[in-house]
């Protein structure tokens, strides 16, 4: 993977050019490489050897504490000690001022080694980043800084048992207590939060929850809809304004752990806020401090959600990558069968490694095109984040808009196709792949979560077709189309890419037409009835574009370059044509699904 | 499901007409219904409540015995006591002379309740059926009869650690010992067999293994290739010609259990034959009796394999069906979100059941089209078996040929698409679906086996494109095309089906052209490089045909009929168009995969 990563960063994204920017002035190819070296070593030594253990020794709750394998404690400690939680932060926050794209490239190694063991890091970083953007100075100083230092870990608490995809139905109440608390306006929260990853553990002395809740109106009622949602920072243990533990336990109690299909190394919790299990200040109610303004909770949270969605995408990619590497290694070593030649097969000859069979190569090429393409996409998004943060005003605005339209793809596409990669990895190993003696079955189980959390596939489709491609009069989609056309322009002079150029141009035109047709009647219920097939087609368009980019970047006749050319060709020959089937129902506003009646099932 | 099953059997396949045949003369709609009632009750009482237990209490080996949950013992006993193992056998064998199609319809209930707990039955029945076809009278009397009676269970032992898909590399040796044994020519076997389902357990007093092995030539060497393979019946405990246990243990020893991703209720074993753990007659070597002629082992075994492949298909379908029912029930009860109307959503209104969302209905319709279509396909194949067994000569020959071309589809298509149904069921349940508190994650794990065992997807593709569609000058494909065209003829007068008729005719023509193009150069390595995409396209063509058949059979405006029409429309609108992408690489003989080099990965 390192060679591909270096290719993507250096030859394709040209990250070296970032050193010219003031924020990254201390960095160069060497410092970037050192970060990757560190992550690669940590992944190999602290995470990969324990990934199966984190699955079999599922977290358990003894009524008082949640127990995780010691290996998880040690791996996360090593991650923190290497300064990786704060990698992209300011020097004054203990950070390294790394570009996001380098931070993400480093994270790729960790995720590939154990996405579940490292889940705590992604949540903590996202939580602290949100507080940096929307918290008060005291909140940044007390909470975010201690999170970046790895002293405390963080969570995001959105869902409730009755409110998963429908956040407008959040019912956790926040009653005001003291508007003048140094840590921010103080409230008492009461409600139940579901699916809280990292919600309980003993790895750090405190856990910082970011919680969506509603402040009741003068009539004591909660405002319906998302407008009523505010955001609160709720520590598991209360802290002083100086950032020390006060010694008092907040009223946040673990109600139970979820027992999952996979991704078991990350605890997943049902948390009760304010049920009276603990009585801070002598009374029930979880103490929380308002972050940002009342009613703007969801807006603030989306700061974390977008980051989390790209993080989910990267995790999905790296699970796919892990399976690809495992099945490639197996295919090279496992003898089985013989080549089909003009004269059939000669059973008297020794068996050949299965990598020589066309169908096995097909399964490996599919995986390669999914996982390398997916990795390129996630790094491209991270590079856009850097542009949004450090580019000039126009470039930053463009990057921000492109991120809007690419985030649903960065989240959903690998969740679907790198899961498929994991299934193909099992298939390459055959019966062995179906046993727990090999890692590929765990990758597949772990990866199945990614189409669900941080916004399901259905939600991503609605976000893309219902919001992102129509926002600002379709400006984000136009920007993306301009980028795709620019790639096509660059590829035009290359005869070897002529077919690919035509196919990509045709696919882009089809997406454009389907988008227009979907909205031709202006009726959301008609347009959005096929939002998921639209999401699938859009994702394949984006990946085809990425692969044309990579084919352009991988020049020459080296084995490495030929591999990239082959994967690009695979994607165009075997994958891109699938968009026609998906777009047909979008363009015709096929009404079957919305007209279907319960009684007919 | 019962309503759909009755519709498929009575309205579509008209099984009542079978009563006119001598073999089924005692049967009628009532006796058929009674069998289904029995199976439905057994499934509900003895299997379904323990399916999760069979997963969590995985079989374990204490060094002497393999332990299964008591519930599995009791469920299999109840199955045997109801006479279901011998359902389609002659009266004189203790059977009921049921048509295969009825037997399979009954089995559908059991498989839906617990495919893994009931795996032993499928193997035993297949084993005994093979002996009925190819065994000597003594073998039928001693082994098959006791298997049908459920006194002993059976297995099939093909794979070895170094010979999975490549059976020509079977290395188990069979040395002649006594040509005049009353149970058949007696040999001593020595070798290791892998992936043996049902290979060890204590449910029955004996286990009857059917084992592929090679008889050495005069030079002591094994003949390379499949021609050298012979078939032996090898009991775990030796038996007398009178069918009683002799008291002596055969030299068959469990080397270990495989620990699987799913399907855990069926033991899966590594068996050592003839390693000397036991010494029947005072010496090492597993005692086995030749079945059929030397060198014809694979031909005999395929008798069981074809049956097993349709059985695998049914199992895959029923896992899909179980997930469909679970997710449908959940979607009807779970409130979340609100309808998208022209004015957006009104958060002040109560939440609505998720079955009202178009995307949820899409996921349910997809499942419905996969699992009901898949069930129809498996029953159709079973009905063909009845035709092959009891039809007049021409009809029997035609049915046999159709079965040849449909078996790879009956096996592979549900393995892929009913697995996808299981994934959609998880998605409908969201986070809950990802927990082990709901059954859908287990269905998905269980179903992942079906693309692997009894011939992988890759093997099915080679069988279809490399053998079945070209055999007898393409006669099987022509027959299928004639059947499809007959359906089209019947649908022509129905205006509501006009679009479907055109689409099916076009798809059939595309398959015909792609088949020709694939073989245009006559080079197997060129044709077969894309055998798997061909298999996928062919499967979707067959299912589209099945759905047009069902749309024709489901007349009227009842909710039931409208559901079938909607599922048919779903399949044609959302699924059938996928064949273009698959066939493009087949028709162009896309050489990418076979030309790909190891070093380029």
TrEMBL record, chains A, B:
Residues 348-462 form the Acyl-CoA dehydrogenase/oxidase C-terminal domain. Residues 480-596 form the Acetyl-CoA dehydrogenase-like C-terminal domain. It holds the Pfam family Acyl-CoA_dh_M. Keywords: FAD, Flavoprotein. Residues 156-273 form the Acyl-CoA oxidase/dehydrogenase middle domain. Transmembrane segments: none annotated. Its cofactor is FAD. Coiled coil: none annotated. PANTHER family: ACYL-COA DEHYDROGENASE, ACYL-COA DEHYDROGENASE-RELATED. Belongs to the acyl-CoA dehydrogenase family. This is Acyl-CoA dehydrogenase. It comes from Roseateles violae.
């Amino acid at each position: 993977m390192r060679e591909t990563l270096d290719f993507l960063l250096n030859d394709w994204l040209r990250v070296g050019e970032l050193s010219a920017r003031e924020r990254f002035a201390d960095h160069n190819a060497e410092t970037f490489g050192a970060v990757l070296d560190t992550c690669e070593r940590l992944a190999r030594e602290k995470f990969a050897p324990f990934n199966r253990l984190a699955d079999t020794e599922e977290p358990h709750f003894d009524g008082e504490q949640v127990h995780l394998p010691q290996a998880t404690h040690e791996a996360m400690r090593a991650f923190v000690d290497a300064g990786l939680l704060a990698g992209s932060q300011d020097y004054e926050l203990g950070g390294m001022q790394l570009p996001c794209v380098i931070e993400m490239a480093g994270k790729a190694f960790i995720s590939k080694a154990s996405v579940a063991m490292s889940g705590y890091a992604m949540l903590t970083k996202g939580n602290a980043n949100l507080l940096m953007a929307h918290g008060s100075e005291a909140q940044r100083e007390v909470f975010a800084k201690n999170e970046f230092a790895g002293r405390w870990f963080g969570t995001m608490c959105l869902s409730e048992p009755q409110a998963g995809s429908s956040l407008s139905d959040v019912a956790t109440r926040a009653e005001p207590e003291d508007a003048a608390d140094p840590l921010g306006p103080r409230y008492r929260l009461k409600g139940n939060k579901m699916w809280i990853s990292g919600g309980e553990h003993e790895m750090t002395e405190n856990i910082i929850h970011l919680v969506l809740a509603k402040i009741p109106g003068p009539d004591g009622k909660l405002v319906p809809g998302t407008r009523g949602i505010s955001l609160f920072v709720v520590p598991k243990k209360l802290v002083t304004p100086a950032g020390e533990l006060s010694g008092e336990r907040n009223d946040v109690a673990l109600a139970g752990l979820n027992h999952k299909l996979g991704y078991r190394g990350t605890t997943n919790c049902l948390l009760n806020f304010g049920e009276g299990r603990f009585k801070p200040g002598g009374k029930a109610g979880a103490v929380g401090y308002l972050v940002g303004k009342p009613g703007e909770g969801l807006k603030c949270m989306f700061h974390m959600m977008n980051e989390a969605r790209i993080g989910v995408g990267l995790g999905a990619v790296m699970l796919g990558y892990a399976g690809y590497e495992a099945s490639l290694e197996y295919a090279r070593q496992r003898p089985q069968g013989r080549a089909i030649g003009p004269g059939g097969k000669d059973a008297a000859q020794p068996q050949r490694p299965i990598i020589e069979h066309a169908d096995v190569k097909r399964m490996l090429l599919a995986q390669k095109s999914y996982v390398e393409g997916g990795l390129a996409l996630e790094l491209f998004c991270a590079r856009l984040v850097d542009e949004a943060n450090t580019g000039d005003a126009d470039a930053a605005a463009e990057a921000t808009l492109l991120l809007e339209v690419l985030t649903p793809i960065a989240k959903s596409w690998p969740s679907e196709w790198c899961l498929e990669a994991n299934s193909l990895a099992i298939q390459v190993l055959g019966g062995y792949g179906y046993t727990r003696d090999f890692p590929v079955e765990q990758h597949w189980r772990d990866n199945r979560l990614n189409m669900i959390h941080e916004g399901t596939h259905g939600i991503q489709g609605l976000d893309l077709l219902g919001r992102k491609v129509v926002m600002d009069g379709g400006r984000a989609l136009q920007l993306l189309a301009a980028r795709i056309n620019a790639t096509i322009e660059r590829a035009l002079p290359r005869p070897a890419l002529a077919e690919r150029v035509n196919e990509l141009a045709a696919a882009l035109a089809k997406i454009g037409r389907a988008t227009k047709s979907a909205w031709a009647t202006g009726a959301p219920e008609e347009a959005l009835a096929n939002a998921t097939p639209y999401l699938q087609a859009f994702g394949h368009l984006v990946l085809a574009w990425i692969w044309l980019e990579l084919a352009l970047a991988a020049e020459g006749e080296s084995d490495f370059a030929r591999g990239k050319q082959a994967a690009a060709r695979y994607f165009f020959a075997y994958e891109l044509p699938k968009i026609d089937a998906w777009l047909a129902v979008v363009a015709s506003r096929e009404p079957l699904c919305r007209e279907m009646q319960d009684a007919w099932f």
